[in-house]
Amino acid sequence: MTLVLIYGVAIMGLVILTGYSGQFSLGHVAFFAIGAYTAAIMMDRGWAPYPVTLLAAGAVSFCFGFLFGLPALRLEGIYLALATFVLSVATPQVLKLTPLIPYTGGVNGISLVKPKAPFGLPITADQWLYYFTLAVAVFMLWVAVKLMRTRTGRALLAVRDSQVAARAMGVNTAVYKATAFGISGLYAGVAGSLSALVVQYVSPDSFTMNVSIAFFVGMVLGGYRWLPGAFFGGLYLVFMPHLSESFGKGSEGIASAVLLIVTVFIVPTGVYGLWALVRGRVLRLTAETI
User: Fold this and answer.
1) I need a labelling partner for 285 at 20 to 30 A (CA). Which of 37, 47, 82, 232 fits?
2) In the 8-state DSSP scheme, what is residue 105?
3) Which CATH class, in words, describes the domain spanning 2-289?
C-alpha cells in the first residue's frame, strides 16, 4: 500500500499535466528519477534528514520540469509526446554517464538505509514509512485540489480547452504550459524521493520507458481528469502484475492490454466514469421508486 500511495502521487502530477492542461507526456519517469536521485544523494552523503530531501527533490524536479516545458512550447500533440518519449529513453543513459558516477553510482546505483520510527514509536520501519507516505499523499492531493480552484488552475483549464480563447482572455499560455510541466515534475519528484526511501535503492535501470508507460496507463484507468483516480492507477501498477501471474507466465502484458482496451471502449474516463455511470443509474432507480 505504501507503493500504491507513491505511484498515486506520481500519477497525480500526470493528471495535472494531461487532464487539466491538455499536454501529453511519456517522459514522466525522468522527473521521477530526478526526485529519487536527489533524495538518495542527499541521504547517502548525510546532507539532510529524509523529510527535507522531499522538499529538495520536489524543488529540483519542478525546475527541470519547467525548463523542459519552455522548449516544448513549440510542440503539441504527437510531437510533444515524441519529445517526452525521447526524454524518457535518455534518462537511464544519462544517469550512467562517467562524469556523474561519483554522485549516481553508475550502473551500481545507490543503496540506502531505511529510517526507523522517530520518538520511540512502537512500530516497525515499514509501518512508519507507510504512515509517513500516507500523510504526504493526502497533503499532495489536498494541494492539487486547492490548486485547481485558484487562478492558476482555471488558467490551465482554459489552456486545455482552447489556447486561442485563453490568449483572448489575457492568459499567458506559454508561462502556464511550462508551469504545468513544472508542477507535474514536482509531484513526480516527491514520489521518486519517497520511492528511494521505501525501496532503499536507486539505479538507472529502475527508471526505464516501461515505467513512463505504466504511469500513463494508470492515469487513463484511474480517470485522466480526476485527481483521486491517481490512486486507483497506483493500485493497478502494484497489484496487476501479481494478479496476472495466476493466469500463467507472461500473461501480465495480455491482461493489461485487455483491461486498457475495455476501459477505452466502455468507460473512457476510467474509474471516475464507471463511478459516475453507476451513481447515475442508482439515482434514476431511486427516483423511479419514489
Assistant:
1) 232
2) -
3) mainly alpha
What cell numbers appear for 95 in the block?
544517469
Do 20 and 180 form a contact (C-beta atoms < 8 A)? yes
CB under 8 A, 24+ apart: contacts of 102-107: 103/37, 103/41, 104/37, 104/41, 104/204, 105/203, 106/204, 107/203, 107/204, 107/205
CA distance 177 to 16: 11
pLDDT score recorded for residue 250: 60
Mean per-residue pLDDT, 197-220: 88
Instruction: Parse the chain into domains and list their residue ranges.
Output: 2-289
With 0-12 CB in 10 A as exposed, 13-18 as middle and 19+ as buried, what is 198?
buried
Please provide the DSSP assignment of 230-274 as one string.
HHHHHHHHHHHHHHHGGG-TT-HHHHHHHHHHHHHHH-TTHHHHH
Cα-based torsion angle of the residue sequence 115, 136, 121, 47 in order, rounded to the nearest 10 degrees:
30
All three cell numbers of 121: 514509536
Helix residue spans in the chain (DSSP H): 2-14, 28-44, 50-69, 77-95, 101-104, 125-148, 151-161, 163-168, 173-199, 209-222, 229-244, 252-266, 270-289
